[in-house]
Every structure is written in C-alpha cells, then in structure tokens.
Write a structure and sequence with these properties.
Helices cover 25% and strands 20% of the residues. By secondary structure, the chain is an alpha+beta fold. Strands 2-3-6-7-8-9 form a 6-stranded mixed sheet, covered by helices on one side.
C-alpha cells in the first residue's frame, strides 16, 4: 500500500510526464463511431440534447490513454467539463454554441488546459476541485467546489457530487439530467479491455488490476483515507438515474451504466454489497 507521500510523488511524476500524443493517421478505416478508438482525435461531436464531446490522444506515463471533455448547454450558458487542448478549431466550435459560463477543473490532474480555455473565454467562471489551488497556485479560479451545493449552475439541469474519501483523488462528478449522462474524469476508467488499447498500455493496466472492466484507479482503492465519505458519495451517484457514462479515459459506457457503477463501487462496501438506504 502506498503511503500518502508516495502517492503524491507518483501523481507529480504523472503530471510532469503527461503530454498530448502525436496525431495518428490510421489509413483505410473510416470509423463509423467518432469515439472509436478512444484515443482518436475528434472535433466537437453531439452526444444527445445539449451535450457535446471532444477527445484527443494523450500519453500518460508512457501509456496511450486518450482524453475527453464535455460541453453542456444550459439556459444560463455553456459548461465545459475537464477541457482538453484548446485548439482554435475546438474553441471556435464551442463559441458557436453560445456563451461559455463555466469551466470546470474536476480534479488535481485534469487542469492542464484550463488556463488556455479561460483565456479563450475570459468571461467564464472557472470552478475547481478541492486542493487544486494549493497544487496549482498559478491557475486563476473563481471558486472551489467543496460540495455539490457550491455549484453555480442550475441543479435542475446538472447534478453535482464532489467525491470525497481520498486526498489526491477528490473529484467533481456531474450528472446531465436531460440525457441521463454521468460525467467523470478519473473516478472511472475503461481502457484495459478495449480492443484498440495498445499492448504496452494493456500490459501496464493488467499489472494493476485495471484491465477487465470500468473501474476506479487501483491506487485510489488501496489508499482511501475516509471510507464513510466515499461511501456517501457513491450512494449519491447511484441515486442518479444514470443511463450512460462519459469518462475521460477509455470507452464510453453506453449499456447497463447503473450496473457498471455498482460493480465499480462495490469494493468500498462490506461483502461487495451496496445497501439500499430507506427513503
């Protein structure tokens, strides 16, 4: 089990080594699904009413894990969640959708391009996960999301949960009610078993037990500091009627999303059973 200092050192090294991967040229395959493979570079792609996604290649510790962002349109304006590279084409595509009101840095790693998006949309309010201001004092922000109630966007449009239980893996998860879509950054990853996962990445994930199905990062599961806090967050997420899951790394979860969440969270409950709370 990694000590807290060791986890911090690993995360620091991960941030330092994370970089966009060169754009791949895969000839002869038109890919009817714009999100296949998960490390394919895309423009802004509609993913249901008032929801768009974009993704890019991303190299993390030598592994190709891809990265994905989401844009939600609300009556008050646009919300950008976990932004990827702020290319001219992508920022202009977002600009055509309307006014950007909020930019969300959901955890301690998914903040690399937040400043670029804030510069492109200076009127937007930047909201960040807990502990990020201490890790990135250079990053301008307009508020820390300590709990869901801190969210400035309309709760009737977007549910918000700040997943607690771990100092490093604290994460802001969102639920787009109109499409039944859960948005997460690193809370769940779905890479290892995808057929397009590259051999080195697959081997590395197999070593840490992350190659079979959507799962939390293994270091998070091994080093939770506050189990009751995590259980409370997991229950609140499970209370949302999630129909599909958009995650930053790996395949989208489009079938039995509720079952995938229960499976991923089961490690934190005695016997792997998540109790049903009374109304």
């Amino acid at each position: 089990m990694l000590a807290g200092a060791g986890v911090g050192a690993v995360m620091g090294a991960a941030v330092a080594s994370t970089r966009p991967s060169p754009m791949r040229c895969d000839d002869g395959d038109p890919w009817a699904d714009p999100f296949f493979p998960f490390h394919r570079r895309t423009g802004l792609v509609p993913y249901g009413d008032d929801l768009w996604l974009a993704q890019q290649p991303l190299n993390w510790l030598g592994m190709e894990v891809g990265a994905r962002m989401a844009v939600i349109r609300t009556p008050q304006g646009l919300l950008i969640y976990s932004p990827i590279e702020a290319s001219f084409a992508l920022t202009e595509a977002v600009r055509l959708l309307g006014e950007v009101r909020w930019i969300v840095a959901p955890n301690l790693l998914h903040n690399l391009w937040v400043a670029d998006w804030a510069q492109a949309f200076p009127g937007a309010s930047v909201r960040v996960a807990p502990n990020l201001p201490e890790r990135r004092p250079d990053l301008r922000h307009d508020g820390v999301l300590h709990k869901g109630e801190d969210a400035p966007w309309p709760e009737g449009e977007i549910g918000t949960e700040v997943v607690r239980g771990h100092k490093v893996h604290v994460e802001v998860a969102l639920f787009h009610r109109k499409t039944g879509t859960l948005l997460v950054a690193d809370l769940l990853q779905n890479i290892g078993h995808a057929p397009e996962t590259r051999p080195l990445t697959r081997a590395g994930l197999r070593l840490v037990g992350m190659s079979a199905r959507p799962t939390l990062p293994t270091d998070m599961k091994l080093t939770l500091q506050d189990l009751p806090a995590f259980q409370a967050s997991a229950r609140r997420i499970l209370d949302w009627p999630v129909q599909r899951i958009v995650l930053a790394h790996g395949r989208l979860v489009t079938e039995d999303a509720g079952g995938a969440l229960e499976d991923a969270f089961a490690f934190a409950f005695p016997g792997g059973r998540i109790p049903v709370l009374p109304d």
